[in-house]
Amino acid sequence: MKMAIECSDLTKRFGSLLAVDHISLSVPQGAIFGFLGPNGSGKSTTIRMLCGVLTPTSGSGRVLGYDLVTQAEAIKQRIGYMSQKFSLYTDLTVGENLDFYAGIYGLSGAAARKRKGELLAMAELTGREKQLAGTLSGGWKQRLALACALLHEPELLVLDEPTAGVDPVSRRIFWEIIRGLAKEGITVLVSTHYMDEAETCDYIGFIFFGKLMGCGTPAELKKASGHATLDDVFIEYVKEGQSQGRGVIAYAGKK
Ligand SMILES: Nc1ncnc2c1ncn2[C@@H]1O[C@H](COP(=O)(O)OP(=O)(O)OP(=O)(O)O)[C@@H](O)[C@H]1O
Ligand SMILES: [Mg+2]
Predict the structure, then answer these.
(1) What's the confidence (pLDDT) of residue 138?
(2) Going by DSSP bridges, is the β-strand pair 66-67/58-63 parallel, antiparallel, or unpaired?
(3) Is residue 102 part of a domain?
């Protein structure tokens, strides 16, 4: 099995805070890997290191065959990234947003027009090219942001909480698109707080304040813990993490 992501003992320290604590994982090509964990647990920090935008404090890894530290530029060029904040220009139209990102990725002419047409169809935005992005509903905005992230045909799609604040019907359409992309061989790394989305991932990793408490298929994690639902599995990880002294200060501060 060809691995799209492999990392070993990945660690990130911000001053005295150990935000990511020796995380090791592997994601096969074409798989959907979901990161779960409470706010501030290190999901985004791990994702940023795997995208080549944040240098690890220690540890090593390869993404799409490239070294995380020495070949970060090659990784950045081959991934599509979409964050919760949907990096769209709200005062540009749907078509103009796609043209803008096509320009960034160096696409032009007939190739750009063809790709734009394909992605408008995928995102069910055909006919809305002239609508201002700022006037789209949350679900449409999300699919436009996804289309922008896919213009350069990335091998790895990285989605950091892509469905936060999006209605259930739009979430379902979005996940159908994601599954279709994975079937085409695109690897997907996604963080989410939704258990229904976690269930649908091929593999999930649960991070609790820097530490990867469990990793495997949803069925494997449920079997290993003896719980029927992922909710219960994760509650057990939280208890285990807290018994190790993790997250206690963070929670105490928020009460
Ligand atoms: N650039 C930074 N400098 C200092 N601390 C940081 C930096 N980036 C993240 N952190 C801290 O690292 C920890 C992990 O943050 P991170 O954003 O990775 O968590 P997360 O799991 O993505 O949380 P959320 O669910 O809220 O998005 C947090 O305590 C955060 O405040
Ligand atoms: Mg985050």
Answers:
(1) 86
(2) antiparallel
(3) yes
| Distance between CA atoms of residues 229 and 236, nearest Å | 11
Q: Which two tokens stand for residue 248?
A: 């206690």
Provide the residue range defining the domain that includes 55. Answer: 3-243
Domain count, the chain: 1
**251 within domain boundaries:** no
Among candidates 15, 17, 20, which has minimal Cα distance to 7?
A: 20
Q: Which CATH number is 42's domain given?
A: 3.40.50.300
Of all protein residues, the one whose alpha carbon is nearest to atom 24 of ligand 1 is 39
> What's the mean pLDDT in 123-150?
93
Pairwise CA distance, residues 48 & 46, whole Å: 5
The answer to whether residue 249 sits within a structural domain is no
Cβ-based neighbours of 30, under 8 Å, separated by 6 or more? 4, 182, 183, 184, 185, 186, 187
Q: How far is the CA of 53 from the centre of ligand 2 (A)?
A: 14
Confirm whether 35 is domain-assigned: yes
The strand pair at 187-191 and 156-160 is best described as parallel
Q: Ligand 1: which of 23, 44, 246 to mutate, most ligand atoms within 8 Å of CB?
A: 44
* Å from CA of 221 to ligand 1 middle: 25
How many whole angstroms separate alpha carbon 204 and alpha carbon 196? 12
Q: How far is CA 241 from each of CA 214, 238, 245, rounded to the nearest angstrom?
A: 11, 5, 7
* Residue 133: band (very low, low, confident or very high) from pLDDT cuts 50, 70, 90: very high
User: Taking the model in full, what pTM does it have?
Assistant: 0.93
| Nearest Cα residue to 23 out of 232, 192, 200, 206 | 206
